[in-house]
Amino acid sequence: MTYALFRDQFAALAPHKYPAEYIDAQVRSGNWKCWSNGKAAILATIKRYPSGFREVEGLAAAGDAQSILSLIPQAEEWGRQHGCSEASIASRPAWSRLLPDYTVDQIKIVKEL
Question: Distance of CA 75 to CAs 16, 34, 35, 60, 113, Å?
């Protein structure tokens, strides 16, 4: 499975929020889908809203940035095939510069307590 090649990198992104075992279970169950090209991998899921609206949500990426960019159209197409009308990526601000066809929708600010 391509996920296994990038598992440790995904697990290192936010282990205090998403332990490796949780990510493993989400991928294994099919709740999260993984795409890889050998140099990078991305994880995405379909978010369903109470209205019925569906969005393919990019959850995490690991590997070379250009290789990550080449995987995004696959996730977008998967979303279209599953009735999604929108794609989103929750990530660092730099990704908005790398993906000019995406617009900033919301900003999340955090404070450690």
Answer: 26, 9, 8, 12, 35
The crossing angle, in degrees rounded to 10, of helices 2-13 and 20-29 is 140
Q: What is the pLDDT of residues 46-93, one digit of tens each?
A: 999 999 999 999 999 999 999 999 999 999 999 999 999 999 998 888
- What pLDDT does residue 1 have? 60
Q: Closest Cα to residue 23, out of 62, 70, 55?
A: 62
CA separation, residue 37 to residues 18, 44, 79, 82, 109 (Å): 24, 15, 19, 22, 32
Residue 91 C-beta-side C-alpha neighbours within 13 Å? 22
Of 11, 13, 62, residue with least CA distance to 38: 62
CA separation for the pair 84, 102 (Å, rounded): 15
Residue 41 pLDDT class (50, 70, 90 cuts)? very high
Whether pLDDT at 106 is above 70: yes
The answer to whether 39 and 63 are in contact (CB under 8 A) is yes
